Amino acid sequence: MSSPWNAVRGFERVSLCDWPGRVSAVLFVAGCPWRCPTCHNAVLAWRAHLLAPLDREATLADLRRRRLWLDGLVVSGGEPTAAPELEALLEDVARLGLPVKLDTNGSDPARLEALLAAGLVDTVAVDVKGPWSRYPELTGQAASSEAVEAWFARIFAMAKQKPQQFLFRCTRVPQLTEEDLAQVRKQVPEMFPVHWQEFIPPRPIPLETEYAQTHS
Ligand code: SF4
User: pTM of the predicted model, to two decimals?
Assistant: First the structure.
């Protein structure tokens, strides 16, 4: 039977870094249509069939048990807004009563707007990957500069209406020069800080056979 939890292929029970200033748990939603060469979650993003889905009941029971010790739940990816059943998943976790932060690359502003309007998300953390002009290279030719600029114009307009609900962050990947980083700062409206994240080189993506051996 189809369940929005089929898309959830990772769970961090406690994280001190995924929601600045909060102790959170993190659900990782599989799948991403982009092909960023620096992707840190490449198995989750592109080869999620190698990862087992989470057990909904066990995960919710664990979160419920620790509800008072957690400040929030992060829904990350992959790219969660590319998951067809994201709303159903968020409705399910809403019953926990935990604030929810959604991590996104910003590629679906209309969906973000709807999620915020429905109260399914409290905070949105949007990745700014670099200058708009460099998006084709930074996303493996998955996103054009023009499209990204238009998406972000819409996101910034939304964020100005609800500034307390938005975070913008940029990872200092090796492809970005100092000029690029300065351009990122210029692209994001001045009223928002940019949260700079250090780049940690991803581990090589295992071959399917290697993966099966290490996870059997
Ligand atoms: S948008 Fe994020 S999840 Fe998707 S490929 Fe790029 S880094 Fe990976």
Answer: 0.94
